[in-house]
C-alpha cells in the first residue's frame, strides 16, 4: 500500500499559494474545477470546487478551495493506493466498513471508506 495524496481544504487559492507554495516551497502542479454535483456526491458540499495540487518528488497535496468552508468540513482525507481495489472493498464489506463508490462521468468510480472514528480514505488502485 502507498500513500497517493492528502486531500485538505482552504478558503482561497491565495491562501493555498501563500502556505503551500510560498511557505512550504511546494510546486503548484495542476489546477482543475470539479462540478458541484460531484463535490455534493463525495463530500456533501453543494458547490463547485477548485482543486489545486501542490507537491514535490515525494508528496502530493490536493487542496480543495471552498470559500465558505466550515470548521467541521468533510473534505479532509488520505488517498491510499492498494494492489487490488476490488479485493480491498470486499474486505471492507466483510469487516463492516462501508466503502462508498461515487460514479464519475467517464464510467469509473471514486471510492471512499471511513474508519471507526470518521476519518476518510480515498482508495485508488496502484498503477
UniProtKB/TrEMBL annotation:
Signal peptide: none
Record protein name field: Glyoxalase/bleomycin resistance protein/dioxygenase
Keywords: Dioxygenase, Oxidoreductase
Keyword Transmembrane among record annotations: no
One Pfam family it belongs to: Glyoxalase
Organism encoding this protein: Desulfosudis oleivorans (strain DSM 6200 / JCM 39069 / Hxd3) (Desulfococcus oleovorans)
GO molecular function: dioxygenase activity
Domain VOC: 2-126
Amino acid at each position: 500500500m502507498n500513500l497517493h495524496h492528502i486531500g485538505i481544504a482552504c478558503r482561497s487559492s491565495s491562501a493555498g499559494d501563500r502556505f503551500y507554495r510560498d511557505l512550504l516551497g511546494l510546486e503548484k502542479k495542476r489546477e482543475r474545477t470539479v462540478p458541484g454535483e460531484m463535490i455534493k456526491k463525495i463530500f456533501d458540499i453543494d458547490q463547485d470546487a477548485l482543486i489545486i495540487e501542490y507537491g514535490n518528488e515525494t508528496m502530493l497535496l490536493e487542496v480543495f478551495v471552498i470559500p465558505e468552508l466550515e470548521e467541521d468540513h468533510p473534505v479532509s482525507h488520505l488517498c491510499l493506493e492498494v494492489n487490488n481495489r476490488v479485493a480491498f472493498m470486499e474486505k471492507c464489506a466483510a469487516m463492516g466498513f462501508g466503502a462508498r463508490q461515487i460514479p464519475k462521468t467517464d464510467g469509473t468510480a471514486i471510492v471512499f471508506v471511513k474508519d471507526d472514528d470518521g476519518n476518510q480514505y480515498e482508495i485508488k488502485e496502484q498503477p
